[in-house]
Structure formats: structure tokens, C-alpha cells
Amino acid sequence: MTEPLGRSRALLGLTEAVARHGVDPAAILAKAGIGFNPADDPERWVPFRGILACYELAAREANLPSFGLELARSRDFAFFGPLNLILKYAPDFQTALLEFKRFSSVQIAGAYEADIVDMDGSFIYQFFLNEALRPISNQWVEESLLTTLKVARIFIGNSFTPGSVRFKHSPISPIRKYAEYFGMVPEFDTEIDGIEFPDEVLQAKNRNEDHDVLALVTSVLGEQTGWGRKNLPDNVRSLIRRFLPTGQFSIEIIADQICSNKRTLQRRLSREGLTYDKLLEDTRRMMATELLEDGNLQLSTIAYHLGYREQSTFNHAFKRWYGVTPGEWRKNSRGDMADR
Question: Percent of the chain beyond pLDDT 70?
Fold first, then answer.
């Protein structure tokens, strides 16, 4: 199973919330295995498990069981990155939810799915979290469902109360806290994590609707995630380049990024006479020479950027491609340049 990943921008606002309670944010990040300030590199992919650990550690170190709820109420939507523009300019609540779901892999890959489940007169926006991660996700789930309610209130009004809120886990805060944040008492120890809205809420209009801006945003996001289907191989190559240094570049991860699955991606590539393994090999081969031309990079660093755990594996692959070792290729390349 591939390791689910998330953008470090998912932690924007969390460090400030931790600091307000007298806890060192750097210590939280370090304990969670995130050795940098997310504000310095918000686009960077990190293990989603580390993001979840930050939530749980923050609640524990601040001695604040309702930390996730407080975080959802206090921070704006900037941590969504470009997805924030969907919420801002979508014409109605239904479009906002569907488009957000469509492009959620821009923010988180391989960790969860969301769906709108018809309940005969109402609907539930439900999270299906990776089962291996759900036991350590209570704070994140509570924050996410309250954030979903905040999104609904953009369209419906701040006084809106959902039909129900459901958690798989038992209460981790006093019941009065949940009532304060959600405007009602949630259901606990249920079979789902979700929030219920009446059907008419789907059609709630956005006063800031801008069709042209939304079309531009979704077009850009489509290129990032591979929804722009005109040149699938180039989209896959671009994603491989982005993910190689993370070590998480399996076909499953790449398929997640284009809102697809392994079999569908394989089938679409096959129609063009390609396989994922061939694209991976070709991309690594091209990147190898590009990186070798930068004489300041050590071979071990280049191997890392190509997703190889060992430099020896990179050496063997490079010799198979070009008939010489990376060191020999670089030496020959420098000689050719000197002769010019």
C-alpha cells in the first residue's frame, strides 16, 4: 500500500493555533516528522500520517481536546490553496462540493475520498478515510466536518444548523463544546463520518459567483491533476517528475492525482501504446542527464531526486540506458564542452 500524502499547506494556521496555547510549534512539527515550517514550503508533499500526528500532538500538548474544532473555527480557507477559489466563486453549494471533491487530490493524495450520499429528502457529505489512518484521525475529522459546515454557511448563512453530524469515534470533548461549534449535538460511534444537509441546501446560491473565474481555476487545476485529457502522457510525466523526490510515485499515487484509478489509467495509456513503467523509465532517463549537467549536484543527490533509495541502483539503471556510469557520462560531457 502506498503512503498517503498531503500538502504541507494543510498545516497552515495550525502552528499559530498551537503557539496561542503556549506550545512550541517547531516541537510539534519535529515530533510528527515534519522538519520544516509549512509556511516556508506550502506546496511540499509530506506523509499524511505526519499531518494527522500534528493535530493529535497539538491537542495533547496544549491539553485541549477540542483543538481540531477550535482550529476549524479560527482559521480561514487559505490552507486549501487553489481549492479556496472554488469555494469563493462556485455558483451554488452543490457545485462547490462536487468541484472540491473532483480536485481534492491537489491537496491530499491517497488518504480519503468524499461523497454526497442521498438520504431521501436530505444528503450527507461523507468522508471515507483510509482505514489504517482512521484510528489516529479524530482531531482531523472533527476539524474537517466543522470546516465543511463553515463552507455551507458561505452559501446559506452563519445561523444555519445541519440536519446531523456523525462521527465514528466517541466524544473527545465535552458535549457542550460540540453543541457550541456545530449548533447541535453530533451523533457518536456511528458507522460514518459525515454531515447532513437538507436537499434544498444544494441549490443555495453564492452571491460572489463568477463563472469565468471558476472556469479558469478548474482549467488550471485540471492541468495539475491530469483532468486535462488532451495530453495524458505529458500530464503523467509531469506528475512523475513532481513525485519522484518524495519516493511516492507508484501508479496508484499518480492515478489518485488525476482523479482516476490504476486500471483506468493503465487502459488509457494502453490506447496510446504506452505503459506507466515506460513513462517512469523515460522520465527518469531524461531527468538524469538534466541533473548531471548541473556539475554541483552529487550523484547521491541525483539518485534521490530520481526516486532511488541507493546510488548503486541509479548507477546500474544509468549504465543500462547509456552504456556508461553517471560519473563517466558527466566526465565525457565536460570534455565535450571543453573541446567546443
Answer: 94
The edge-to-edge listing of strands for the beta sheet with 45-47 is: 45-47, 5-7, 108-109
The single residue listed with the C-alpha cell 448563512 is 157
- Check the CA dihedral 190-195-198-199 and report its sign: negative
Collapse the DSSP code of 171 into the 3-class scheme (helix H, G, I; strand E, B; otherwise coil) and give the result. Answer: coil
Residue 215 lies in a domain: no
Residue 199 has a CB neighbour count (10 Å cut-off) of 13
**21-50 mean pLDDT:** 93
Does 119 share its domain with 266? Answer: no
> Which has the minimum average pLDDT: 16-30, 42-56, 108-122, 160-174?
108-122
User: Is 211 contained in some domain?
Assistant: no
The set of cell numbers assigned to 294 is: 548541473
State phi, psi for 107 to the nearest 5 degrees.
Answer: -100, -45
- Residues 53, 170, single domain; the answer is yes
pLDDT tens digits for range 224-277: 665 554 578 888 888 898 888 888 889 988 887 765 678 878 988 998 899 999
C-alpha cell of residue 217: 481555476
What's the structural domain count of the chain?
Answer: 2
* pLDDT score recorded for residue 223: 65
Give me the pLDDT at residue 72, please.
97
Contact 25, 19 (CB under 8 A): yes
Measured CA to CA in angstroms, residue 199 lies from 60, 99, 152, 256 at distances of 38, 18, 13, 29
Q: What is the mean pLDDT of the chain?
A: 89
> Which has the closest alpha carbon to 47: 79, 11, 74, 98?
11
Greatest alpha-carbon span in the chain? 78
Three-state SS at 97: helix
Give bridge partners of residue 50 from the DSSP assignment: none
What's the CA gap between 89 and 78, in Å, rounded?
14
12, 42 contact by CB (below 8 A): yes
